[in-house]
Amino acid sequence: MRSGATPLITWYDEARGERIELSGTSFGNWVDKTAGLLTDEIMTEPGDRARLRLAGSHPAHWVTLVWVAAAWRARCAVTLDPDLDAAVEVVGPDDPRPGDVETIACSLHPFGLGFDAPLPAGVLDYGVEVRAHPDIFTGPHPAPADVAWADSDRQLSQAEVVADMAGEPARELITPLSDDAPLTIIRRAMVRPVVTGGSAVIVVGGSADRLAAIAAAENVSPVS
Q1: What tens digit of pLDDT does each residue of 178-214 get?
Q2: Nearest to 161 by CA among 141, 198, 187
Q3: Which domains are seen in the chain, by residue range?
Q4: Based on the number of CB atoms within 10 Å of its own CB, is 83 exposed (0-12), middle (13-18) or buried (19 or more)?
């Protein structure tokens, strides 16, 4: 994980009027704390799957990107497929019900806080639980051949997920569309900036004029 005080991911939710900026160091701390939650509290093992329903409902959210990177840091594969076995299921605020395995719900609070109301029995509150874990995760890093992404008809290794991501560092504006595949969004919004040393400004919602204003304010490349 690239570290430093420079921005790595900047998140805009125009419908909610939110802007969150994470430096490489801040993003890395969230990733390491979440990897600790997976391995020390959920007791995942390398090769397990983490079913991220959150990535299906909110693929571009900064919390989703943290979860994907944390699963990989803990040497788990990410899946959205409900038919594949998983060691843990991560959901958003829309439907925080217990699943068939340990379930963690994310409020998507702009500052990563927990839910205002108690969750159903059998569901952990990510914003509460993650804070108990260290900022630095000391487990072994994933190997290129480790499975990074799995669904019913394919498995992609760590090496395959980062393939074709090399390039010059750039600060890019990402405007995910509803019909974009979650992995496509994740690769553009998180994998590419981490691999290249660039950064991403992710904007959900907003008019063309608003996007132009954000692009000018954030000094980013043309809308992608």
Answers
A1: 778 999 999 999 999 999 999 999 999 989 999 999 9
A2: 187
A3: 7-218 (3.40.50.12780)
A4: exposed
